[in-house]
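To whoever is on call:

I kicked off a structure prediction for a single chain this morning and the downstream step that reads the tokens threw a length-mismatch warning. I double-checked the sequence; it's 290 residues and nothing unusual in it as far as I can see. Pasting both halves so you can look.
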Amino acid sequence: MKNHVLTSLALTATAAALLTGCSAASDTAESKAKPYGDCEVTGTAGEFSLDTLTEGTLTVKADLPSKGWYNGDTVESITDGVDYCILANIAYRSGIENIDLKNASFDGLIAGKAGDMDLTLNQITITDERRKIFDFSEPYFSSTAGIVVPQGSTITEDTIAEAKIGVKQGTTEQIFVDEVLKPTQQVSVFPGDAELDAAVAAGQIDAAVQDLSVALGAANASNGRIEVIGQFDSGQQMGVLLPKDSPNTAVISDIIIQMREDGTIDALASKYLSAAYGTDPTDIPVWSTK
């Protein structure tokens, strides 16, 4: 067993330790056009050009809120966080004044059922299957899968495959558990992270496997009811998701590359994620599935 350093494609080892996530939300029409909120924008205004649904507005759908990534209790209250501030920088560098942020379920987003949008930035893992129906930008973060258990659980690396495991519907963690971990008991599937973590805390399942960033955020907010005891290196990379054959894909990739190289993504991770998780992910042991 060894300690694992989470990697962002442009982060230092310290900043990389702060990574990553998805949150539970309902599919609603709740939205509000926003300026750049509390985000600090960098780069050159209007250096790039995007072909958006509404002129002067970047229309975005995401599974909201998401602590550290989209901070707030409602869509209207979200004005910062890593993903929101990446959006703000994309808009600023593209000469776009407003972000129209709309709520959508994660499952709906990755199934292509969220309706019209310019893009979504929602800690979505790039997969070959998803590439068949969407475009993805260059990756902006990498992550692992965390193992969440009730406080005091006796589950170990050797016994996790025999446990009753829960996952969030539509996630790469669900695929990982089904195809790689292959537990002996039937896997329980939940519509959102909140329901999944509540099931762990209530003892309805023995463990949850979910994006490490989400797992750490949930454990930090649980008042000691749940904890993260391990992580699987699932080799996941996250990108901006766009409609298939979007005219903006190459431009968004150029902006992401620029933001990695100029240190903007590093700075956002350092500013927002350390407080959200309250622990160093490099201290979480990496478990093997063999």
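Update from on-call: the warning came from a stale cache, not from the record. Cleared it. Sanity check on the structure: The radius of gyration is 18 Å.
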